[in-house]
Fold these 2 entries.
Entry 1:
Amino acid sequence: MFIHGSAGVGKTHLAVAYLVREIQSKGEASRVFIRSVDLMNRLRDSFRSSYNQAASEIIGDYSRYRFLVIDDLGAERHTDLVQEAMYDILDFRSGHRLPTVITSNFSLDRVAEHYGDFGERIVSRIAGMGETMRLLGKDRRWQK
Ligand SMILES: Nc1ncnc2c1ncn2[C@@H]1O[C@H](COP(=O)(O)OP(=O)(O)OP(=O)(O)O)[C@@H](O)[C@H]1O
Ligand SMILES: [Mg+2]
């Protein structure tokens, strides 16, 4: 599922609700929430130090989790590494029909632009995996 909309409308809240429901019915193992910024920072770090987990292992883990929330897709800086890693993860997950909830401030068109050469293929996989939902409303953080 792809949930998009402007700041504070409740995208992360809704994605976490899906994750909690999943954990309550099937258990915690292999059911994971990550912000895309943190995922990409972990990947970058993996290139900097040999003590860190290898990038391929990180990509392998996030490709295979039984249920994954990727929060704030598109908020990370886009480099070739980031674009390719996101493609790898989503290609595997869509191919294996692994449930994935993605939130973003971007619509799918803008996600496609953000991911450069991989954009069209990333968006094709996201859209093909399930529903696209646009959340409307006010910023719940401060608007009444
Ligand atoms: N259905 C809801 N009921 C009550 N509170 C909610 C609901 N949805 C969101 N909120 C609250 O509103 C605030 C903003 O929600 P959230 O963080 O999910 O927004 P977001 O769309 O992810 O924003 P951003 O684009 O900035 O990440 C949070 O404090 C959240 O707990
Ligand atoms: Mg959010």
Entry 2:
Amino acid sequence: MPTAAFTTLGCKVNQYETQKILESFEAQGFEIVPFDAPADVYVINTCSVTQSAEAKSRQTIRRAARQNPNAIVVMTGCYAQFTLRRGERLDEAHLVVPNPDKLRAVEYLLEHYPHFKTALEQARRQGGTPLRRRSRAVLKIQDGCNVYCSFCSIPYTRPVMRSIPYQEVLDEARAMVEDGYREIVLTGVLIGDYGAETGSGGPDLAELCALLSEIDGLERIRISSIEPTLISERLIDLIAENSKMCPQLHIPLQSGDSRILRAMNRPYDQAFYLDLIRRLRERIPDFGVSTDIMVGFPGEDEQAFQHTCFVVEQVEFCRAHLFRYSPRPGTPAETMSDHVPDSVKSERIQQLQRVCKAAAQRYASRFLGRVERVLVESRSKLSGLMMGTSDHYLQVEFAGSPNLAGELVKVRITDLTADGVTGELVSL
Ligand code: SF4
């Protein structure tokens, strides 16, 4: 049976789409293997949000080609689309699927490389069936953004706000649960505005989550990324009261400095952000917050950067994704003056990494000795321990059987590690 491996760069929308592509390969009979295993086909869903995302996309494609020089490497996503538009070629990518057609990647592959069709037919005749354990599924409920942050090109490429009708979301969630998934991660570009463009009558994000939580067999619901100004009291109440809702949100900070936030056209300031976290933790103690932070936005001086470090120390993010600002063509920030030199950006990224790591450890230490519910995902190649994610979004490792993959278990947290915590299995 031919094997296929997948990886994603960039946002949660890309992750969702990779999952859809993966399912279409699975439906054709491909066996899905981890990305670092030898595979017959590698599919890379690329990103072009920053220059470093583009560089990582290229590196990943080259890594796949090195892993199995006989494999077919398929590239799609935003960076793939850029290369098509610019007429560039990457020698290691055998097939470039245009971004709008990415969900048809398997059709492109079978058309260009018909020997896979023959191999799949043979495998079907011999009765081979792929086996895959399920843990968390990503479900896209919204697309489009109208915020126009001055560094971001998304509103120019996806300006139309569109929420997936709630009946469709519920149907897809039920199908995912029937497929064996225990956790659903809701995703979208501006997910906090779910339902807003449809006018009154339909559910908003909080109501949609409440409806989803009624699905039998669905045990955890996580919201992927939500803008700070779009977190409603109703959503906070729901998370506080409904045990299926994870007590964690990914709330992009981008900068801890109010002047830079204004220049970014982000509709909040430092005080608003800190007050939001205070309200969340007053209502839900030890609430987990992960974030995105952009370093080196034009005009970011040392004082502004220190304000970002200050917010990180105050909030104690459980995870922080740090991005180095790079100009995106056609955005207002591209033409701003006072660009920060690359060497300064690099120093600040390193400094902020240290601040974030210490703050994440302080947050994780709140859980020492406590029992956390963990969705088990896989075995760590480094430690040989089983790995999973806790309700509060801690990465937890513990000794256990590989059969636990896909299960929700209880783990007592005993130690801190560089990226998370370790613990002992308490019960299934
Ligand atoms: S909220 Fe800002 S950063 Fe996020 S997609 Fe919209 S414009 Fe881009």
